[in-house]
Amino acid sequence: MNAVRIAASLRLLREQPQWQLLAALKAAPILAVLRAVLLEGDSVLAGSVLTERIARELDALRESGEDLPQTAQAYVADWLRQGWLVRRLPDGASEETYELSADAVAALRYIGSLLVPKTSATESRLATVIDQITKLAEETDAQPERRIATLQAERDRIDREIAALRGGVVHTLPPDRALERAREVIRLADELAGDFRRVRDDFDRLNRSLRQSLVENDGSRGEVLEQLFAGIDVIGQSDAGRTFAAFWRLLTDPLQSSALFDALEAVIERPFARQLTPRERRFLLGLTATLMNEGGGVHDVLQHFARSLKAFVQSREFREQRRLHGLLKEATQAALQVKEAVRANQILPFTMTLTSGSIRSASQWQLYDPAERVADASMDAEVPSELSLEAVAELVRQSEIDFRTLRAHIRDALQRSSQVSVGDLLAEFPAEQGLGSVVGYVALGARHGEVTVGSEDVSWVGADDQRRRACVPAVYFIRERYVELVD
User: Quick one: residue 454, left, alpha or beta (phi over 0 = left, psi -120 to 50 = alpha)?
Assistant: First the structure.
Protein backbone atom coordinates (compact mmCIF):
# COMPACT_ATOMS: atom_id res chain seq x y z
CA MET A 1 0.00 0.00 0.00
CA ASN A 2 1.52 3.31 -1.08
CA ALA A 3 1.48 6.59 0.85
CA VAL A 4 -1.54 7.96 -1.03
CA ARG A 5 -3.78 5.04 -0.11
CA ILE A 6 -2.46 5.04 3.46
CA ALA A 7 -3.23 8.76 3.78
CA ALA A 8 -6.75 8.23 2.42
CA SER A 9 -7.36 5.42 4.90
CA LEU A 10 -6.04 7.50 7.79
CA ARG A 11 -8.19 10.44 6.72
CA LEU A 12 -11.27 8.25 6.97
CA LEU A 13 -10.08 6.91 10.32
CA ARG A 14 -9.57 10.49 11.51
CA GLU A 15 -13.34 10.99 11.33
CA GLN A 16 -14.11 7.99 13.54
CA PRO A 17 -15.19 8.55 17.19
CA GLN A 18 -12.06 6.88 18.59
CA TRP A 19 -9.67 9.33 16.95
CA GLN A 20 -12.04 12.25 17.55
CA LEU A 21 -11.98 11.50 21.28
CA LEU A 22 -8.18 11.37 21.42
CA ALA A 23 -7.89 14.59 19.40
CA ALA A 24 -10.63 16.54 21.23
CA LEU A 25 -9.78 20.02 22.47
CA LYS A 26 -10.40 18.99 26.08
CA ALA A 27 -9.41 15.36 25.63
CA ALA A 28 -7.61 15.10 28.99
CA PRO A 29 -10.56 15.99 31.28
CA ILE A 30 -13.05 14.16 29.05
CA LEU A 31 -11.01 10.96 29.10
CA ALA A 32 -10.51 11.33 32.84
CA VAL A 33 -14.25 11.64 33.51
CA LEU A 34 -15.21 8.74 31.23
CA ARG A 35 -12.52 6.54 32.75
CA ALA A 36 -13.47 7.36 36.35
CA VAL A 37 -17.24 7.06 35.89
CA LEU A 38 -17.78 4.26 33.35
CA LEU A 39 -14.55 2.32 32.84
CA GLU A 40 -13.32 1.91 36.41
CA GLY A 41 -16.84 2.03 37.92
CA ASP A 42 -20.12 0.52 36.78
CA SER A 43 -20.08 -0.06 33.02
CA VAL A 44 -23.81 0.67 32.61
CA LEU A 45 -25.54 3.50 34.49
CA ALA A 46 -29.02 4.95 34.53
CA GLY A 47 -29.26 8.47 33.10
CA SER A 48 -29.89 10.17 36.45
CA VAL A 49 -27.03 8.34 38.16
CA LEU A 50 -24.66 9.09 35.26
CA THR A 51 -25.32 12.84 35.29
CA GLU A 52 -24.95 12.99 39.07
CA ARG A 53 -21.57 11.22 39.01
CA ILE A 54 -20.31 13.25 36.06
CA ALA A 55 -21.36 16.47 37.81
CA ARG A 56 -19.34 15.43 40.87
CA GLU A 57 -16.24 14.72 38.74
CA LEU A 58 -16.66 18.00 36.84
CA ASP A 59 -16.79 19.96 40.10
CA ALA A 60 -13.55 18.33 41.22
CA LEU A 61 -11.87 19.17 37.90
CA ARG A 62 -13.08 22.77 38.05
CA GLU A 63 -11.61 23.11 41.53
CA SER A 64 -8.27 21.94 40.13
CA GLY A 65 -8.33 24.71 37.48
CA GLU A 66 -9.97 23.03 34.46
CA ASP A 67 -12.24 25.20 32.30
CA LEU A 68 -15.41 23.12 31.88
CA PRO A 69 -18.30 25.59 31.35
CA GLN A 70 -21.12 23.18 30.42
CA THR A 71 -23.41 21.23 32.71
CA ALA A 72 -23.23 17.47 33.13
CA GLN A 73 -26.41 17.04 31.04
CA ALA A 74 -24.92 19.11 28.20
CA TYR A 75 -21.72 17.06 28.19
CA VAL A 76 -23.68 13.79 28.16
CA ALA A 77 -25.70 14.98 25.15
CA ASP A 78 -22.52 16.09 23.36
CA TRP A 79 -20.68 12.80 24.05
CA LEU A 80 -23.71 10.87 22.87
CA ARG A 81 -23.73 12.84 19.62
CA GLN A 82 -19.98 12.31 19.17
CA GLY A 83 -20.45 8.53 19.46
CA TRP A 84 -18.54 8.15 22.73
CA LEU A 85 -21.61 7.03 24.68
CA VAL A 86 -24.37 4.56 23.79
CA ARG A 87 -27.92 5.07 25.02
CA ARG A 88 -30.38 2.20 25.43
CA LEU A 89 -33.82 1.63 26.94
CA PRO A 90 -33.95 -1.91 28.38
CA ASP A 91 -37.28 -3.71 28.49
CA GLY A 92 -39.21 -2.76 31.60
CA ALA A 93 -36.74 -0.04 32.63
CA SER A 94 -38.04 3.27 33.97
CA GLU A 95 -35.27 5.34 32.39
CA GLU A 96 -32.57 5.11 29.76
CA THR A 97 -29.16 3.63 30.46
CA TYR A 98 -25.78 4.80 29.19
CA GLU A 99 -22.51 3.00 28.58
CA LEU A 100 -19.25 3.60 26.74
CA SER A 101 -19.17 2.89 23.03
CA ALA A 102 -16.65 0.43 21.63
CA ASP A 103 -14.60 3.30 20.16
CA ALA A 104 -14.48 5.11 23.51
CA VAL A 105 -13.38 1.92 25.29
CA ALA A 106 -10.61 1.41 22.73
CA ALA A 107 -9.40 5.00 23.17
CA LEU A 108 -9.42 4.71 26.97
CA ARG A 109 -7.54 1.42 26.90
CA TYR A 110 -4.93 2.89 24.57
CA ILE A 111 -4.41 5.84 26.92
CA GLY A 112 -4.30 3.45 29.87
CA SER A 113 -1.54 1.46 28.19
CA LEU A 114 0.49 4.67 27.90
CA LEU A 115 -0.07 5.57 31.55
CA VAL A 116 1.21 2.21 32.80
CA PRO A 117 4.69 1.46 31.40
CA LYS A 118 5.37 -2.17 30.64
CA THR A 119 8.15 -4.27 29.21
CA SER A 120 7.99 -4.34 25.44
CA ALA A 121 8.82 -8.05 25.26
CA THR A 122 7.99 -10.34 28.17
CA GLU A 123 8.60 -14.04 28.60
CA SER A 124 4.88 -14.76 29.00
CA ARG A 125 4.05 -13.13 25.66
CA LEU A 126 6.80 -15.05 23.90
CA ALA A 127 5.62 -18.29 25.52
CA THR A 128 2.06 -17.58 24.37
CA VAL A 129 3.21 -16.96 20.79
CA ILE A 130 5.35 -20.11 20.71
CA ASP A 131 2.57 -22.22 22.23
CA GLN A 132 -0.04 -20.99 19.77
CA ILE A 133 2.22 -21.43 16.73
CA THR A 134 3.20 -24.94 17.85
CA LYS A 135 -0.44 -25.86 18.46
CA LEU A 136 -1.44 -24.43 15.07
CA ALA A 137 1.25 -26.43 13.30
CA GLU A 138 0.19 -29.63 15.06
CA GLU A 139 -3.56 -29.27 14.49
CA THR A 140 -3.16 -28.44 10.78
CA ASP A 141 -0.79 -31.33 10.08
CA ALA A 142 -2.50 -33.88 7.81
CA GLN A 143 0.24 -36.55 8.19
CA PRO A 144 -0.80 -39.27 10.72
CA GLU A 145 2.80 -40.33 11.38
CA ARG A 146 3.88 -36.84 12.47
CA ARG A 147 0.76 -36.40 14.60
CA ILE A 148 1.41 -39.75 16.33
CA ALA A 149 5.07 -38.86 16.92
CA THR A 150 4.07 -35.51 18.45
CA LEU A 151 1.52 -37.13 20.76
CA GLN A 152 3.99 -39.82 21.82
CA ALA A 153 6.59 -37.16 22.63
CA GLU A 154 4.01 -35.31 24.69
CA ARG A 155 3.07 -38.54 26.48
CA ASP A 156 6.73 -39.25 27.26
CA ARG A 157 7.12 -35.75 28.67
CA ILE A 158 4.05 -36.22 30.87
CA ASP A 159 5.33 -39.60 32.08
CA ARG A 160 8.69 -38.07 33.03
CA GLU A 161 6.97 -35.26 34.91
CA ILE A 162 4.74 -37.73 36.79
CA ALA A 163 7.77 -39.80 37.74
CA ALA A 164 9.59 -36.71 39.01
CA LEU A 165 6.59 -35.68 41.10
CA ARG A 166 6.35 -39.15 42.62
CA GLY A 167 10.01 -38.84 43.49
CA GLY A 168 9.33 -35.59 45.34
CA VAL A 169 10.74 -33.25 42.68
CA VAL A 170 8.34 -30.33 42.12
CA HIS A 171 9.21 -27.48 39.78
CA THR A 172 7.17 -24.28 40.07
CA LEU A 173 7.43 -20.89 38.41
CA PRO A 174 9.52 -18.31 40.28
CA PRO A 175 7.31 -15.62 41.92
CA ASP A 176 8.43 -12.85 39.54
CA ARG A 177 7.63 -14.93 36.44
CA ALA A 178 4.30 -16.07 37.92
CA LEU A 179 3.38 -12.45 38.69
CA GLU A 180 4.30 -11.39 35.16
CA ARG A 181 2.20 -14.17 33.64
CA ALA A 182 -0.78 -13.36 35.88
CA ARG A 183 -0.74 -9.71 34.80
CA GLU A 184 -0.50 -10.75 31.16
CA VAL A 185 -3.61 -12.91 31.67
CA ILE A 186 -5.39 -9.98 33.31
CA ARG A 187 -4.56 -7.73 30.37
CA LEU A 188 -5.80 -10.26 27.81
CA ALA A 189 -8.98 -10.99 29.78
CA ASP A 190 -9.68 -7.29 30.22
CA GLU A 191 -9.43 -6.74 26.48
CA LEU A 192 -11.64 -9.78 25.89
CA ALA A 193 -14.39 -8.38 28.12
CA GLY A 194 -14.18 -5.07 26.24
CA ASP A 195 -14.59 -6.80 22.87
CA PHE A 196 -18.21 -7.63 23.70
CA ARG A 197 -19.21 -4.02 23.06
CA ARG A 198 -17.81 -4.21 19.54
CA VAL A 199 -19.71 -7.44 18.88
CA ARG A 200 -22.93 -5.86 20.14
CA ASP A 201 -22.34 -2.80 17.93
CA ASP A 202 -21.99 -5.14 14.94
CA PHE A 203 -25.36 -6.67 15.83
CA ASP A 204 -26.87 -3.19 16.06
CA ARG A 205 -25.67 -2.29 12.57
CA LEU A 206 -26.95 -5.58 11.15
CA ASN A 207 -30.33 -5.03 12.80
CA ARG A 208 -30.67 -1.49 11.40
CA SER A 209 -29.68 -2.51 7.87
CA LEU A 210 -32.11 -5.44 7.96
CA ARG A 211 -34.99 -3.21 9.09
CA GLN A 212 -34.18 -0.79 6.29
CA SER A 213 -34.23 -3.55 3.69
CA LEU A 214 -37.56 -4.84 5.06
CA VAL A 215 -39.13 -1.39 4.76
CA GLU A 216 -37.80 -0.88 1.23
CA ASN A 217 -39.07 -4.29 0.09
CA ASP A 218 -42.08 -3.84 -2.22
CA GLY A 219 -43.04 -7.52 -2.18
CA SER A 220 -45.96 -9.27 -0.54
CA ARG A 221 -46.26 -10.09 3.15
CA GLY A 222 -45.03 -13.64 2.52
CA GLU A 223 -41.90 -12.35 0.79
CA VAL A 224 -41.28 -9.94 3.64
CA LEU A 225 -41.53 -12.75 6.19
CA GLU A 226 -39.14 -14.87 4.13
CA GLN A 227 -36.70 -11.98 4.07
CA LEU A 228 -37.20 -11.53 7.80
CA PHE A 229 -36.20 -15.09 8.67
CA ALA A 230 -33.38 -14.92 6.15
CA GLY A 231 -32.22 -11.74 7.89
CA ILE A 232 -32.21 -13.49 11.24
CA ASP A 233 -30.00 -16.15 9.67
CA VAL A 234 -27.79 -13.35 8.32
CA ILE A 235 -27.27 -12.05 11.85
CA GLY A 236 -26.48 -15.52 13.15
CA GLN A 237 -24.15 -16.39 10.25
CA SER A 238 -22.29 -13.06 10.20
CA ASP A 239 -18.66 -12.87 11.37
CA ALA A 240 -19.77 -11.35 14.65
CA GLY A 241 -22.53 -13.95 15.05
CA ARG A 242 -20.31 -16.97 14.40
CA THR A 243 -17.52 -15.62 16.59
CA PHE A 244 -19.83 -14.94 19.47
CA ALA A 245 -21.66 -18.26 19.10
CA ALA A 246 -18.38 -20.17 19.36
CA PHE A 247 -17.28 -18.10 22.34
CA TRP A 248 -20.66 -18.50 24.07
CA ARG A 249 -20.59 -22.30 23.63
CA LEU A 250 -17.13 -22.42 25.22
CA LEU A 251 -18.10 -20.07 28.05
CA THR A 252 -21.31 -21.93 28.94
CA ASP A 253 -19.73 -25.37 28.83
CA PRO A 254 -20.01 -26.72 32.41
CA LEU A 255 -16.63 -28.41 32.37
CA GLN A 256 -14.81 -25.40 30.92
CA SER A 257 -16.47 -22.86 33.24
CA SER A 258 -15.92 -25.05 36.31
CA ALA A 259 -12.26 -25.58 35.41
CA LEU A 260 -11.80 -21.84 34.89
CA PHE A 261 -13.39 -20.99 38.25
CA ASP A 262 -11.29 -23.58 40.12
CA ALA A 263 -8.12 -22.38 38.41
CA LEU A 264 -8.85 -18.73 39.32
CA GLU A 265 -9.42 -19.61 42.97
CA ALA A 266 -6.20 -21.62 43.01
CA VAL A 267 -4.22 -18.73 41.50
CA ILE A 268 -5.60 -16.25 44.05
CA GLU A 269 -4.47 -18.52 46.91
CA ARG A 270 -0.88 -18.77 45.63
CA PRO A 271 1.75 -16.75 47.58
CA PHE A 272 2.81 -14.70 44.55
CA ALA A 273 -0.78 -13.40 44.17
CA ARG A 274 -0.28 -11.25 47.27
CA GLN A 275 1.89 -8.96 45.16
CA LEU A 276 -1.05 -8.19 42.88
CA THR A 277 -2.92 -4.95 43.48
CA PRO A 278 -6.40 -5.15 45.08
CA ARG A 279 -7.97 -4.23 41.73
CA GLU A 280 -6.09 -7.06 39.96
CA ARG A 281 -7.14 -9.57 42.63
CA ARG A 282 -10.79 -8.48 42.38
CA PHE A 283 -10.62 -8.74 38.61
CA LEU A 284 -9.29 -12.31 38.70
CA LEU A 285 -11.77 -13.36 41.37
CA GLY A 286 -14.71 -11.96 39.41
CA LEU A 287 -13.48 -12.87 35.91
CA THR A 288 -15.97 -15.70 35.41
CA ALA A 289 -18.89 -13.52 36.48
CA THR A 290 -17.67 -10.64 34.33
CA LEU A 291 -17.41 -12.78 31.20
CA MET A 292 -20.81 -14.37 31.85
CA ASN A 293 -22.47 -10.98 32.41
CA GLU A 294 -20.93 -9.41 29.31
CA GLY A 295 -21.60 -12.48 27.17
CA GLY A 296 -25.11 -12.83 28.57
CA GLY A 297 -25.82 -9.23 27.65
CA VAL A 298 -24.77 -9.79 24.05
CA HIS A 299 -26.73 -13.06 23.93
CA ASP A 300 -29.86 -11.27 25.20
CA VAL A 301 -29.39 -8.54 22.57
CA LEU A 302 -29.11 -11.15 19.82
CA GLN A 303 -32.28 -12.91 20.98
CA HIS A 304 -34.08 -9.58 21.34
CA PHE A 305 -33.25 -8.66 17.75
CA ALA A 306 -34.93 -11.80 16.46
CA ARG A 307 -38.07 -11.22 18.54
CA SER A 308 -38.26 -7.49 17.80
CA LEU A 309 -37.83 -8.02 14.05
CA LYS A 310 -40.77 -10.42 13.99
CA ALA A 311 -42.91 -8.05 16.09
CA PHE A 312 -41.87 -5.15 13.82
CA VAL A 313 -43.05 -6.93 10.67
CA GLN A 314 -46.37 -7.85 12.26
CA SER A 315 -47.00 -4.40 13.77
CA ARG A 316 -48.81 -1.33 12.45
CA GLU A 317 -45.53 0.57 12.67
CA PHE A 318 -44.05 -1.56 9.89
CA ARG A 319 -47.03 -0.95 7.59
CA GLU A 320 -46.93 2.79 8.30
CA GLN A 321 -43.21 3.01 7.59
CA ARG A 322 -43.66 1.13 4.33
CA ARG A 323 -46.46 3.53 3.35
CA LEU A 324 -44.33 6.60 4.16
CA HIS A 325 -41.38 5.09 2.29
CA GLY A 326 -43.61 4.58 -0.76
CA LEU A 327 -44.89 8.16 -0.64
CA LEU A 328 -41.37 9.56 -0.35
CA LYS A 329 -40.22 7.38 -3.21
CA GLU A 330 -43.09 8.58 -5.43
CA ALA A 331 -42.35 12.21 -4.55
CA THR A 332 -38.67 11.75 -5.35
CA GLN A 333 -39.45 10.15 -8.72
CA ALA A 334 -41.92 12.93 -9.58
CA ALA A 335 -39.32 15.57 -8.70
CA LEU A 336 -36.72 13.87 -10.89
CA GLN A 337 -39.13 13.87 -13.83
CA VAL A 338 -39.73 17.65 -13.69
CA LYS A 339 -36.29 18.79 -12.63
CA GLU A 340 -35.39 19.82 -16.22
CA ALA A 341 -38.68 21.70 -16.79
CA VAL A 342 -38.95 23.61 -13.50
CA ARG A 343 -36.26 25.94 -12.21
CA ALA A 344 -35.25 25.71 -8.59
CA ASN A 345 -36.23 29.35 -7.90
CA GLN A 346 -39.48 29.29 -9.87
CA ILE A 347 -42.68 30.19 -7.98
CA LEU A 348 -45.22 27.39 -8.38
CA PRO A 349 -49.01 27.98 -8.42
CA PHE A 350 -49.51 25.70 -5.45
CA THR A 351 -50.59 26.51 -1.92
CA MET A 352 -49.84 24.14 0.92
CA THR A 353 -52.11 24.26 3.92
CA LEU A 354 -50.04 24.06 7.06
CA THR A 355 -51.24 22.71 10.35
CA SER A 356 -52.15 25.28 12.98
CA GLY A 357 -53.42 25.57 16.51
CA SER A 358 -56.27 27.56 18.00
CA ILE A 359 -55.22 30.81 19.68
CA ARG A 360 -57.09 32.15 22.68
CA SER A 361 -56.76 35.32 24.66
CA ALA A 362 -54.75 35.16 27.84
CA SER A 363 -57.74 36.65 29.66
CA GLN A 364 -59.67 33.45 29.00
CA TRP A 365 -57.26 31.43 31.07
CA GLN A 366 -58.31 30.70 34.62
CA LEU A 367 -55.44 31.23 37.00
CA TYR A 368 -54.60 28.54 39.52
CA ASP A 369 -55.07 29.60 43.12
CA PRO A 370 -52.80 27.61 45.47
CA ALA A 371 -54.92 28.68 48.43
CA GLU A 372 -57.76 26.48 47.21
CA ARG A 373 -55.70 23.35 47.81
CA VAL A 374 -53.65 23.88 50.90
CA ALA A 375 -52.06 20.72 52.20
CA ASP A 376 -51.96 20.08 55.91
CA ALA A 377 -48.39 21.01 56.84
CA SER A 378 -48.76 20.47 60.55
CA MET A 379 -46.32 18.04 62.15
CA ASP A 380 -46.69 16.00 65.29
CA ALA A 381 -44.10 16.71 67.95
CA GLU A 382 -41.84 13.72 68.31
CA VAL A 383 -40.69 12.54 71.72
CA PRO A 384 -36.96 13.30 71.92
CA SER A 385 -34.58 10.37 72.10
CA GLU A 386 -32.99 9.56 75.42
CA LEU A 387 -29.56 9.44 73.79
CA SER A 388 -28.23 12.11 71.46
CA LEU A 389 -26.11 11.32 68.44
CA GLU A 390 -23.06 12.61 70.26
CA ALA A 391 -23.75 10.25 73.16
CA VAL A 392 -24.16 7.26 70.83
CA ALA A 393 -20.95 8.17 69.00
CA GLU A 394 -19.12 8.40 72.32
CA LEU A 395 -20.39 4.97 73.36
CA VAL A 396 -19.21 3.49 70.05
CA ARG A 397 -15.78 5.07 70.44
CA GLN A 398 -15.46 3.64 73.93
CA SER A 399 -16.41 0.13 72.77
CA GLU A 400 -14.12 -2.31 70.96
CA ILE A 401 -15.94 -3.66 67.91
CA ASP A 402 -15.01 -7.23 66.99
CA PHE A 403 -14.32 -6.59 63.30
CA ARG A 404 -12.68 -10.02 62.87
CA THR A 405 -15.94 -11.83 63.74
CA LEU A 406 -17.97 -9.47 61.56
CA ARG A 407 -15.65 -10.11 58.59
CA ALA A 408 -16.03 -13.87 59.11
CA HIS A 409 -19.83 -13.51 59.10
CA ILE A 410 -19.71 -11.54 55.84
CA ARG A 411 -17.42 -14.09 54.16
CA ASP A 412 -19.64 -16.95 55.31
CA ALA A 413 -22.74 -15.24 53.89
CA LEU A 414 -21.04 -14.41 50.56
CA GLN A 415 -20.17 -18.10 50.03
CA ARG A 416 -23.92 -18.81 49.83
CA SER A 417 -25.14 -15.60 48.16
CA SER A 418 -23.56 -13.21 45.67
CA GLN A 419 -24.84 -10.14 47.53
CA VAL A 420 -25.89 -9.47 51.16
CA SER A 421 -27.00 -6.36 53.03
CA VAL A 422 -26.59 -5.32 56.66
CA GLY A 423 -30.17 -6.45 57.33
CA ASP A 424 -29.44 -9.89 55.85
CA LEU A 425 -26.38 -10.29 58.09
CA LEU A 426 -28.27 -9.26 61.23
CA ALA A 427 -31.06 -11.70 60.37
CA GLU A 428 -28.60 -14.58 59.90
CA PHE A 429 -26.02 -13.89 62.63
CA PRO A 430 -26.68 -12.60 66.18
CA ALA A 431 -25.63 -9.03 67.00
CA GLU A 432 -23.28 -10.04 69.80
CA GLN A 433 -22.29 -6.43 70.47
CA GLY A 434 -25.71 -4.92 69.85
CA LEU A 435 -25.43 -1.48 68.32
CA GLY A 436 -21.67 -1.97 68.02
CA SER A 437 -22.23 -4.87 65.59
CA VAL A 438 -24.55 -2.73 63.46
CA VAL A 439 -22.05 0.14 63.35
CA GLY A 440 -19.27 -2.33 62.56
CA TYR A 441 -21.16 -3.74 59.57
CA VAL A 442 -21.86 -0.22 58.27
CA ALA A 443 -18.19 0.76 58.71
CA LEU A 444 -17.02 -2.35 56.82
CA GLY A 445 -19.59 -1.69 54.09
CA ALA A 446 -18.34 1.88 53.60
CA ARG A 447 -14.82 0.49 53.09
CA HIS A 448 -15.35 -2.86 51.32
CA GLY A 449 -18.96 -2.77 50.09
CA GLU A 450 -21.20 -0.84 47.72
CA VAL A 451 -23.08 2.11 49.25
CA THR A 452 -26.22 2.93 47.26
CA VAL A 453 -28.73 5.75 47.43
CA GLY A 454 -31.36 5.20 50.13
CA SER A 455 -31.56 3.49 53.49
CA GLU A 456 -32.45 0.14 55.04
CA ASP A 457 -34.50 -0.69 58.13
CA VAL A 458 -32.71 -3.29 60.24
CA SER A 459 -33.50 -4.99 63.54
CA TRP A 460 -31.58 -7.08 66.06
CA VAL A 461 -31.94 -8.63 69.51
CA GLY A 462 -29.65 -7.21 72.17
CA ALA A 463 -28.12 -8.81 75.23
CA ASP A 464 -31.29 -7.94 77.22
CA ASP A 465 -33.41 -10.00 74.75
CA GLN A 466 -35.08 -6.80 73.52
CA ARG A 467 -35.55 -6.31 69.78
CA ARG A 468 -34.38 -2.96 68.53
CA ARG A 469 -34.69 -1.28 65.13
CA ALA A 470 -32.62 1.28 63.26
CA CYS A 471 -32.44 2.97 59.86
CA VAL A 472 -28.95 2.63 58.34
CA PRO A 473 -27.47 3.54 54.92
CA ALA A 474 -28.15 1.00 52.17
CA VAL A 475 -24.89 -0.99 52.11
CA TYR A 476 -24.32 -4.19 50.11
CA PHE A 477 -21.42 -6.64 50.25
CA ILE A 478 -20.74 -8.39 46.91
CA ARG A 479 -18.82 -11.59 46.15
CA GLU A 480 -16.52 -9.80 43.67
CA ARG A 481 -14.93 -7.94 46.62
CA TYR A 482 -14.63 -11.04 48.78
CA VAL A 483 -10.85 -10.91 48.78
CA GLU A 484 -10.86 -7.52 50.54
CA LEU A 485 -12.55 -9.12 53.56
CA VAL A 486 -9.82 -11.72 54.07
CA ASP A 487 -7.89 -10.96 57.25
Answer: left
